[in-house]
Design a protein that fits this description.
This protein is an alpha/beta fold and 281 residues long. It has a single domain, classed as Alpha-Beta Barrel (TIM Barrel). Strand 8, helix 7 and strand 9 form a beta-alpha-beta unit. Helix 1 runs parallel beside helix 2, helix 4 packs parallel to helix 5 and helix 7 packs parallel to helix 8.
Length: 281
């Protein structure tokens, strides 16, 4: 039944309003999704799948605390929903401030990559929080080296200094910048994009994209200059965000509809399809 619902959603769809014109909503790849342990009782897997269906989400980058949350979604997802699993670096909340200098986390990443339900399917490491000189630990250097060896993306919730250091460690690194730096000015984002060809910007919590309800001029210019470098995300890091999921995706659909259709499609899902080598159904 779940598979049928997803197929019907793809055929029928819902409609977003752009001025006086009805525009069929874009298919979406959610590139920042957490199914953390706190969410599992109020939002069992069937409820999560229904949330995705209602928002025309056809794929997700799954990064959960602990990692068995992502494994659970992989087990129940219909064929019409593509799950791209990443290894989260947190076993529990106690790891948040210490993971980057903890050899146990390095060992856990290597184990999760080579064993269990995600074996052979892992496409990246993160989301992780890392700032400034924290990126200079020997353990983090080992994680970056492991990512390079196995062609994995790094999903970094980081400031510019940490992002720059990742590329110092590995100039050909592939990095998804969570929230595109949160409040980093658009001119600085442009400079980072120019400096690091392997950098993708993920847009959750970037509420400055619109101004007065419309796509802002600086962001329009940035999306026009770098249409291949941005991804959408929900970031349900706390359970309450799941109740807001539809609003989050509606916000994206509204300003995406102001862009040329090909650019909107790239940001909504085609960039994710390209970088992960997938095709959304």
């Amino acid at each position: 039944m779940g598979k049928l619902k997803f197929l019907l959603a793809g055929i029928v769809g819902v409609f977003a309003i752009n001025g006086a014109h009805a525009v069929e909503p874009l298919r979406v790849f959610d590139a920042h999704m957490h199914y953390n342990i706190e969410a599992r009782e109020p939002y069992p897997p069937a409820a999560i799948l229904e949330i995705f269906r209602k928002s025309n989400v056809r794929g997700v980058l799954a990064t959960s605390r602990p990692n068995d949350g992502s494994e659970l979604l992989m087990k129940v997802a219909p064929e019409s929903l593509t799950i791209v699993p990443f290894i989260r670096v947190y076993r529990d909340r106690a790891d948040y401030g210490t993971w980057h200098k903890n050899p146990e986390i390095v060992a856990m990443i290597e184990r999760e990559f080579s064993e269990g339900a995600m074996k052979g399917k892992v496409r990246g490491i993160g989301e992780f929080h890392l700032y400034g000189d924290e990126a200079k630990s020997k353990e983090f250097a080992q994680i970056v080296a492991f990512a390079q060896k196995n062609d994995l993306w790094l999903h970094a919730h980081s400031d510019e200094a940490a992002i720059n250091h990742i590329f110092t460690l590995a100039p050909k690194a592939k990095v998804i910048w969570a929230h595109t730096g949160f409040s980093v000015a658009t001119d600085r984002v442009a400079a980072m994009m120019k400096a690091h060809p392997g950098l993708m910007g993920e847009l959750s919590y970037r509420n400055d994209i619109t101004d007065g309800g419309k796509l802002s001029k600086p962001w329009r210019a940035l999306f026009t200059a770098y249409p291949d470098r941005f991804l959408l995300g929900s970031d349900c890091w706390v359970t309450e965000r799941w109740a807001q999921y539809g609003e989050i995706m509606d916000y994206y659909q509204r300003w995406l509809a102001e862009l040329p259709r090909d650019v909107g499609n790239k940001i909504a899902h085609r960039n994710a399809e390209r970088i992960f080598g997938i095709t959304l159904k």
